[in-house]
Amino acid sequence: MRSRVKICGITSVRDGLAAARQGADAIGLIRYQPSPRAVTLEQAREIAASLPPFITRVAVFVDPSEDSVSATIQACRPDLLQFHGEERPEFCRSFGVPYLKAVRVRADIDLLEYLSPFHDAAGWLLDAYRADLYGGTGEAFDWRMVPSELSRPIVLSGGLAPTNVVEAIRRVRPWAVDVSSGVESAKGIKDERLIAAFIAGVRDADV
User: Fold this and answer.
1) At what angle do helices 66-76 and 41-50 cross, to 10 degrees?
2) Whole-angstrom Cα distance, residue 202 to residue 200?
3) Catalytic positions, please?
4) Whole-Å CA distances, 89 to 44, 67, 92, 121
5) DSSP secondary-structure letter at 121?
6) Beta bridge partners of 134
7) Domain limits of the chain?
8) Is the pLDDT of residue 139 over 80?
9) Considering the entire predicted model, what is its pTM?
10) 3 state SS of 129
């Protein structure tokens, strides 16, 4: 199986096209204002419109209002929504767009219990936990905490980089990996050489 790659926290057309050139399957547009990688509706529209065919556009939210999600859908027509907060399953499924549900993994969370209400999600994204951050932590969690049998495709996130993505994939065997800070030269600024090295690592892991 070929592991899919999402480059998250894209903030410019340049970085979106760099991700596409290097073989990314998806890019993430963050619609959560406190994030240093947040984009405005106009930026999201411009980036989404610039991408070539067959690149999945993912709009990322943290406990958004219905109006915020609807405005984003109207502006950039994302292929997938990603909910990274404490959203209810009824809310996630109410927009008529496939969605990912993220969970920040920590020792006191039963992943199966937490995620089972989101049984209709396109996939479940597992990220590192930090109380003050939703994604982009640059920190990995203990991959041994991932249950061996989960009923939805897994997207592995949290602290991934060119230096550890091979091990991560071989340990967890996720459907996809999601990287943001691990391929940046500065917060919100992607480095195409790091994107290329990350995707090369993914391909090595798949052999």
Assistant:
1) 40
2) 5
3) 8, 127
4) 25, 17, 5, 9
5) S
6) none
7) 4-206
8) no
9) 0.94
10) coil
